[in-house]
């Protein structure tokens, strides 16, 4: 005789004198990466009050190991002392999962909302974290669910160049051009917000890996600009003196 599941049992009417127990649904899991102990505790407590089972860690290594152990409904990331690592772990998680990611930023830190979104985050929060805003952003992302998240623009264009974010393809007219990971990240950053000037520090944070963080940001700009022009593309990367880099139209050169 087959045993009845808890869902099946819950459909039967209660019989006087007989107690039928129904198991509560499992809590959704949230991964919290935060290196500030006070903020980590406050955010963890609020998430638990909202009904999450929270797994909090302080390093990217712990985050990678913990992420592989179970399914998550939400990931929150902030590393004030290692901004490059926070972007890197965001990229790594996004490469293998569609789980909603919230990046926590701070005004005086180099990682801002644009860098967070370019790395694969779905939304961001600014410190000091307002509990009401945290609850609203978390609820919004959780309700959307992994398959219901608002689609992001996947084809970015500027002049005669295009970047297919979904396929990781870069083209000049109809010609496909291979880019290194750093070149791709640099161009993605500029093309996602083409009217903004990014500082050298922001570009380096967005494009560098932990191995080549000492590489001058000018090297990335020169390498990418040369490759575009060598393959018949326009001079689209403008160096703004004492500020940083931005995209420029041919008519402005």
Question: What does this 3D model show about the protein?
Answer:
The chain has two domains: 29-144, Response regulator (Rossmann fold), CATH 3.40.50.2300; 155-252, Arc Repressor Mutant, subunit A. The chain has helices at 6-10, 37-49, 60-67, 83-96, 113-118, 131-144, 181-192, 200-207, 217-230, and strands spanning 29-34, 53-57, 74-78, 101-106, 123-127, 155-158, 161-164, 169-172, 175-177, 198-199, 237-240, 244-247. Strands 2-1-3-4-5 form a five-stranded parallel sheet, with helices on both faces. Strands 6-7-8-9 form a four-stranded antiparallel sheet, with helices on one face. It has a three-stranded antiparallel sheet with strand order 10-12-11. β3, α4 (83-96) and β4 (101-106) form a beta-alpha-beta unit. It is built from nine helices and twelve strands. The chain is of the alpha/beta class. α3 (60-67) packs parallel to α4 and α7 (181-192) crosses α9 (217-230).
Provide the descriptors you would attach to this structure in a database record.
alpha/beta, 253 residues, Rossmann fold, 37% helix, five-stranded parallel beta sheet, 21% strand, disordered N terminus, Arc Repressor Mutant, subunit A, 2 domains, 9 helices
Query: What summary fits the major beta sheet?
Result: 5 strands, parallel
Low-pLDDT parts are: 1-13
Strand order of the largest sheet: 2-1-3-4-5
Overall pLDDT score: 82
Q: Compute the CA-based radius of gyration.
A: 23 Å
DSSP summary: helix tally: 9
> SSE string, helix = H, strand = E?
HEHEHEHEHEHEEEEHEHHEE
**For this structure, what is the CATH homologous superfamily of the largest domain?**
Response regulator
User: Per DSSP, what share of the residues sits in E-state strands of 2 or more residues?
Assistant: 15-25%
């Amino acid at each position: 005789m087959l045993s009845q599941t808890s869902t099946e049992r819950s459909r039967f009417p209660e019989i006087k004198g007989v107690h039928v127990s129904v198991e509560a649904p499992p809590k959704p899991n949230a991964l919290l990466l935060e290196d500030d102990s006070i903020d980590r505790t406050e955010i963890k407590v609020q998430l638990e009050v909202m009904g999450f089972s929270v797994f909090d860690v302080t390093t990217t290594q712990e985050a990678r190991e913990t992420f592989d152990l179970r399914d998550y409904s939400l990931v929150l990331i902030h590393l004030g002392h290692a901004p490059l690592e926070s972007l890197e772990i965001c990229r790594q998680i996004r490469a293998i999962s569609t789980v909603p990611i919230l990046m926590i930023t701070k005004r005086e830190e180099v990682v801002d909302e644009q860098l967070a979104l370019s790395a694969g985050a779905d939304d961001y929060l600014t410190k000091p974290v307002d509990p009401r805003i945290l609850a609203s952003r978390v609820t919004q992302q959780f309700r959307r669910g992994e398959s219901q998240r608002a689609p992001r623009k996947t084809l970015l264009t500027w002049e005669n160049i295009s970047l297919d974010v979904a396929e990781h393809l870069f083209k000049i007219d109809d010609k496909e051009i291979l880019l290194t990971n750093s070149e791709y990240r640099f161009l993605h950053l500029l093309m996602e917000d083409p009217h903004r000037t990014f500082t050298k520090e922001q570009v380096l944070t967005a494009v560098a890996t932990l191995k080549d963080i000492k590489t001058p940001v000018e090297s990335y700009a020169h390498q990418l600009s040369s490759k575009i022009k060598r393959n018949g593309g326009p001079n689209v990367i403008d160096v703004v003196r004492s500020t940083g880099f931005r995209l420029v139209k041919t008519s402005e050169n």
